[in-house]
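Lecture 7 notes: from sequence to structure.

We start with a single chain of 176 residues. Read the sequence below before looking at the structure.
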Amino acid sequence: MAAGPRFLYLHGFASGPNSRKGVFLSEHYARRGVELCRLDMRLPSFEHLRASAMIESVRSAIGGPSDRAVLFGSSLGGFIAAQVAALDARVAALVLLAPAFRFGKRWRERLNETGWRRWQETGWLETYDYTTGQMGRVDFGFMTDLQTLDFGDFADVRVPTLIMHGRRDEVVDIAV
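Now the structure, written as tokens:
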């Protein structure tokens, strides 16, 4: 008898695998006999985040060539989950929580041209790190890496997908 799919949780930007949301979902599914594996998406580190490393980590966590996975993604994790689903036929379904589609374009708009140029020129963006509870920084290589992956505006997802999104989300606009 074939084993069921793996359930993998991908946290958001400046968050971590032990976020309240990730722990809550993990405990919720554990009570139902399902293990939700919380992946660490701070790859290779928070200061040097790379979407390409995140994607490869998720693909590796799915398992072997005949394994299947259901990906749960929150914010940036939802964006990455959709990219993996478009690239990897082993993804059986997606559960996306306020997915940060158009991530790079939205960040450029959010920072405005002055902030974007400052990040590019200095190489660093100061941001709050919810895992450590302190200010941290992310290098501009994160955006350079994101741009080289050529995702377009939306991933070509062809698996069952559930999207949950708050109408008053201040970080990821529901309109996207």
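The first strand starts at residue 6 and ends at 10. Keep this in mind for problem set 3.
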